[in-house]
């Protein structure tokens, strides 16, 4: 009699274990009120941005235009000193954008961190680093 009871307990344990493992493997929630987390929407920096770069000669202002979609963004900077500068190698990851510009024959890198319709960042020109800030004025 003791053997039958032990056998029943072992079988019940195996059935419960198999059920839990199959639920975990199939992704089926064991709680009927559980909801799957929605994937966060990717940040899209596209639009027209007014920006300012702090330089030793004072602030340099302009307009940055970002267009495209994730994986295929393009950007340009309309500057008050150098005209329109095309940004090459535009890379957007999460809320960060990097790219390269050419200023008077010298290569510079830009980095921008977006927070909604605000932006901070920097321009790296040789050994110099110039802080940058801006706001989106239209999408």
Verbal overview:
Strands 1-2-3-4-5-6-7-8 form an 8-stranded antiparallel beta barrel. The chain is 18% helix and 53% strand. With 139 residues, it is of the alpha+beta class. The chain has 2 domains: 1-32; 47-138, Calycin beta-barrel core domain (Lipocalin, Beta Barrel). It is globular, with a radius of gyration of 28 Å. The chain contains 1 helix and 8 strands. The chain has one helix at residues 2-26, and strands at 47-55, 58-67, 74-79, 83-93, 96-103, 106-115, 118-125, 128-138. Mean pLDDT is 82; it is low at 4-8 and 10-21. 17% of the residues are buried.
Give a summary of the structure in a few sentences:
With 139 residues, the protein is an alpha+beta fold. The chain has one helix at 2-26, and strands at 47-55, 58-67, 74-79, 83-93, 96-103, 106-115, 118-125, 128-138. Helices cover 18% and strands 53% of the residues.
Which stretches are poorly predicted, pLDDT < 50 over at least 5 residues?
A: 4-8, 10-21
The first-to-last residue Cα distance is: 77 Å
Number of domains: 2
The coarse silhouette is: globular
CATH architecture of the largest domain: Beta Barrel
SSE succession: HEEEEEEEE
CATH superfamily of the largest domain: Calycin beta-barrel core domain
On the 0 to 100 scale, the average pLDDT is 82
Number of strand elements: 8
Give the C-alpha Rg.
28 Å
* Major beta sheet, strand line-up: 1-2-3-4-5-6-7-8
Helical content band:
10-25%
Q: How many helices does DSSP assign? A: 1
Alpha-beta classification: alpha+beta
Could you tell me the strand content as a percent range? over 45%
């Amino acid at each position: 009699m003791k053997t039958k009871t032990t056998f029943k307990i072992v079988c019940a344990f195996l059935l419960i274990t198999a059920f839990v493992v199959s639920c975990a493997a199939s992704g089926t929630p064991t709680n009927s009120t559980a909801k799957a987390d929605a994937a966060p929407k990717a940040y899209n920096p596209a639009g027209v941005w007014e920006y300012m770069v702090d330089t030793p000669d004072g602030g340099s202002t302009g307009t940055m235009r970002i267009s495209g979609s994730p994986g295929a963004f393009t950007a340009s900077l309309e500057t008050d000193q150098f005209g329109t500068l095309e940004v090459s190698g535009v890379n957007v990851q999460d809320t960060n954008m990097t790219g390269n510009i050419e200023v008077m024959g010298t290569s510079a890198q830009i980095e921008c961190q977006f927070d909604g319709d605000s932006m901070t960042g920097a321009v790296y020109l040789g050994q110099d680093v110039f802080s940058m800030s801006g706001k989106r004025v239209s999408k």
